[in-house]
Amino acid sequence: MIQRTLFLIGIGFILCSCTTIKSHEQRVKLATDPEGARVYLGDKFLGTTPGFISIPRQRSATLRFEKPGYPKITRKLETTYRWGDSFFSDFVWFIYGAPIAWGVDYLSGTIWDYDKIDVITFDGKKEIQPLSPPKSIAIAPPQNESVLLSNEVAQRIFSISQKRFSNSLVEDFNENHELFGQYGWDNREKTQKYFQDDLFNELNVTHVLESQTTRVKDQIKVESKLVDVFTGQEVESYSDKLPVSAFKYSESFLTDALNYLISVCPNTISFDFATPGASMYASNNYTYVGAAETTSSAISIINGIGLKSLDSPKFQKGISGVIKLIPIITTSYNRYNLSAASGTNYASNYNFDWATIIAGFGPEVGLITTIGYFYTELAPSLSMNWITANSTLQNTSARGTAFALFGEVGYSMFASSRINLRLFTRIQTSPTDPWSQVLTQISGIPTYVQSVTQTTAGLSIGYYFPEDRIILRRAFFPY
Fold first, then answer.
1. What integer pLDDT is reported at residue 315 of this predicted model?
2. Distant-in-sequence, close-in-space partners of 358: CB < 8 Å, separation ≥ 6
3. In terms of DSSP bridges, do strands 207-216 and 219-228 run parallel, antiparallel, or are they unpaired?
4. Buried-most residue among 46, 69, 352, 363 (CB within 10 A)?
5. Strand, coil or helix: what is 273?
6. What is the reported pLDDT for 2?
7. Per DSSP, what are the bridge partners of residue 461?
8. DSSP letter string over 316-339?
9. Cα separation of 446 and 437, whole Å?
10. Which residue in 70, 56, 5 sits closest to 26, CA to CA?
11. Phi/psi at 37 (5° precision)
12. How far is the CA of 83 from the CAs of 77, 86, 111, 372, in angstroms?
C-alpha cells in the first residue's frame, strides 16, 4: 500500500507540475493595423506584430505598442481563471498532490489565461486591412459528409493552391491533418471560434484555406475562402469544379462500414491504477467476497492495461451530448484473498491469481463539457479468464471463456494533447466455470458458482495516439 501511494504521489506531482512548468508563458495573438508594431511589457521587448507572442502569465498585464510615425498605444490584458488546464487537471490528483499544485499555480501566476484582444488600429480606422500577400497557408479539412472524399479534395486543393499562390508557402494537407483533428476540426465541423487561435498558433501560418464541397451532377464543386489568421477576415474566395471521375472512392456500404470501423479504432493505451474487488455466489449457499492483495510487486501499482477509443481532445465551451458505439479492450491481473460472507471459508489458505482479457463492442453515452468528458458505457463482451489458486497445501488452476457484460462510468480529460486522465468505476461479469473448478478442487466439495462479478475503481493514465486512424485510412484508402 505504501509503495502504491508513494508511486501515485510521485506521478501525480509530476503531472500536476507539467501544467505549471510548461505554461508559465502564454502565446497571445496580437495584430495591429498597420502591422509591424513593436510590443513591450514594461521595458521588455516581446515581439513584432502580427504574431503569436509569448507573454509571462500573471494576474494582469499592460502592453505597449510602438510604431514609427504613430503615437504609442497601451492595452491592458484581462485574465480569466484556467478551470480546465489548472483546476481540473490538478483536481484529478486531489489526494496525490493537487493542493500543492494549485498553490504552485497561484504563486507562479499560471492559473490565469489572458483574454483575447481585437486588432489594434493606430489611426483609429474601423476597417481592418488583412495581411497581404499571404506568407504561409494551411489547408483545413474540406467540409463534406464523407471523410474519404474530404481527404481527396484536400489533396486536389493543395495542388491547385501551389499554383494559385506561387509566392506563398502552401503546407501539405497531410502534415497538418492530425493537428486539425486534435482540435476537433474535421470534415463535418470546425474548431469552435473561441479556440481557433490555439490551433492557428500551433499551425504557425498566416492564413488558412477553408472549403465546402458539394456534388453537382458529375462534378464536385469546391467553394474555398482564404482567411487571415490574425484579423479573421476573408481575403479572397475561389470556386473550382472537379470531375467525379477524378476521385477514387464513391459512397458505398462497404467503404462506409470500413471507414466507420477505422473511426472507432482504439487510439489510446491506458494504464489503470485501481482498487479491484470481486464477489461470487455458489450453489451450496456459499458467498465469497474477494479483495485484491497488496504486494510489493509491480502488480500492486498497475493492475490493468487497456485500449480506449477516444475522440480528439476537442476544445469547446458549453455542453453537448454524445452517443456512439465503441470497442472495449482491456486486460487485468490481480491477486485476491477470498473470504466467505456465508458458509465455511475453504479459500482462507489460498491466494488467487486472476488474469482477464475482455473484448467487446457497445454503446457509450457521454457529455462533453469545457472541463472534461463524462461518460457511461455498457458493452456485451467476450471474457477470457485464467485463475490459479496457490497455497502451501496445493496449487490448482483453471481457465474459461464466456460472454460477459462490461460497464463503466467515469470522467475523462486531457492533461495535454497526448496525455489523458480518467477517473472510473467499472463492473464486469466473468465466466463461472473456472471458479467452479478451482473452488471444487480446494474444498473437496462439488461447487457450482452461479455468478462472478468484478468491480474496479481508480485512476487511469492514457497515451493518445490519433495517428493510427490516419495511417489506417491511408493504407485502405490511398489518395
1. 62
2. 328, 329, 330, 331, 381, 382, 383, 384, 404, 406, 428
3. antiparallel
4. 352
5. strand
6. 47
7. 271, 421
8. -SS-EEEEEEEEEEEEEEEEEEEE
9. 9
10. 56
11. -80, 145
12. 18, 6, 8, 10
282 burial (CB, 10 Å; 0-12 / 13-18 / 19+) is buried
Cβ 211 vs Cβ 149: under 8 Å: no
Q: Can you give the pLDDT at residue 444? A: 80
- 193 touches 176 (CB < 8 A): no
Q: Give 20's contacts (C-beta < 8 A, 6+ positions apart).
A: 101, 104, 105, 108, 110
Q: Compute the distance between CA of residue 305 and CA of residue 269 in angstroms, rounded to an integer.
A: 7
Cell 474477494, located at residue: 290
Quote the CA–CA distance of 445 and 439 in Å, as a whole number. Answer: 8
**In angstroms, rounded to a whole number, what is the distance separating the alpha carbons of residues 280 and 285?**
11
| C-alpha cell of residue 123 | 489611426
Helix 193-203, helix 173-182: angle, nearest 10: 140
Cell of 60: 494582469
**Three cell numbers written together for 184:** 476537433
Rounded distance between C-alpha atoms, residue 213 and residue 147, angstroms: 11
Per-block mean pLDDT, blocks of 10 residues, the chain (479 long): 49 49 77 91 93 88 92 89 56 53 60 84 68 85 89 92 92 88 86 86 93 89 93 90 81 80 90 82 65 48 87 72 92 83 74 91 91 92 92 86 94 84 91 88 83 88 87 82
d(CA 236, CA 209): 10
Residue 189 half-sphere exposure, CB side, CA atoms within 13 Å? Answer: 10
The dihedrals phi and psi of 44, each to the nearest 5 degrees, come to -90, 125
Residue 349: left (phi > 0), alpha (psi -120 to 50), or beta?
A: alpha
Question: Of the candidates 45, 94, 95, which has an alpha carbon nearest to the alpha carbon of residue 65?
Answer: 45
Q: How many CA atoms lie within 13 A of 236 on its CB side?
A: 11
Residues 6 or more apart from 169 whose CB is under 8 A from it?
A: 135, 136, 137
Instruction: Quote the Cα angle for 447-449-451, to 5°.
Output: 170
Determine the Cα–Cα distance for residues 328 and 406; give it in Å rounded to an integer: 8
pLDDT computed for residue 436 by the predictor: 87
**pLDDT score recorded for residue 100:** 58
Do 270 and 309 contact (CB within 8 A), yes or no?
A: no
